[in-house]
Amino acid sequence: MRMIPFIILMQLFSLQARATPEIDTLCQEIDLEVNALKWKLPSCNKLAEWKSLGQSVKGRPLIYAEFGNPESKNTTLIFSMVHGDEITPLFIGLKLADWLKQQPVMLKTHRIIVAPLVNPDSFFSTPRTRVNARGVDVNRNLGTLDWKSKALQAWKTQFKSDKRRFPGNEPDSEPETIFQKDLIKLTNPSKIMSVHSPLNHLDYDGPTTLSLWRFPKDYVEECIRLSQKVKAKSTGYFIGSLGNYAGTERGIPTFTMELPTANPKKAWDYWLIFKAGIYTVIQHGVPRVVTH
Q1: What value does the CA radius of gyration of the chain take, rounded to a whole number of Å?
Q2: What is the 3-state secondary structure (H, E, C) of 119-140?
Q3: Which CATH class is domain 20-283?
Q4: Gap between the Cα atoms of 256 and 80, Å rounded
Q5: What confidence score (pLDDT) does residue 2 get?
Q6: Which mean pLDDT values do the consecutive 10-residue runs of the chain (292 residues) have?
Q7: Helix %, strand %, coil % of the chain (to 5)
Q8: Domain residue spans of the chain
Q9: Cα(67)–Cα(64) distance, integer angstroms
């Protein structure tokens, strides 16, 4: 009798666990929007074997998919659609899942996790919004060390109480925030990329020469080398942001890719332009360090 390898049995089990009605319903919603935006993509359920890790405020599953070798130490975590009115990042997240399946050689030695729709409620709302269903910016809600002492005050003064950038009344109050944090803990990435629009730059948060007292010199050098490869620069510091939480505080090199616009007609063009940079981040090996 031919024995089925243990890893295949585990994959079959997890596949069964993923095929939930909630994910199917979300994929149907995504397909309707993708068709309306005239993006030529396979249907959502055919793009990946989606898993969920929590639910949005309105009960939609917060999904992600894993690609490649689960034993690989070169793990890249990619988020998109943290803000629902930044439409083009959704195309990048979905197209990336489609493209990764066509890279069998790379997937033998790399592990990539893609979360294409971090903030689904804001994307499916009418009109689309930056904030989640409770009016919180989930890229300002992560519980960074300075959140309780500075977040609300900075929102009132620096951002003049702009509702689009409301950090919440408490840190880590939103399920979409917890999703990002839980996925970082679950996957233990060696680097992170988050896709946004429309500021047209690549931001870097992570170890620099100023971090040598916290991290090994060779680790810091590899992080800096990667940021130089993709021409990323540090463009600002935001309380409660992913870059601050993961990059500055935990030392995981974190790249925020800002596409030039949110115009859905430009989505394919942006994929062609920025695919090389995404590939470079995935390929570059950064050794993991214990950061907390």
Answers
A1: 19
A2: CHHHHHCCCCCCCCCCCCCCCC
A3: alpha beta
A4: 10
A5: 42
A6: 43 49 97 97 96 97 97 96 97 97 94 98 97 98 97 96 97 98 97 95 93 91 95 90 96 96 96 96 85 51
A7: 45, 15, 45
A8: 20-283
A9: 10
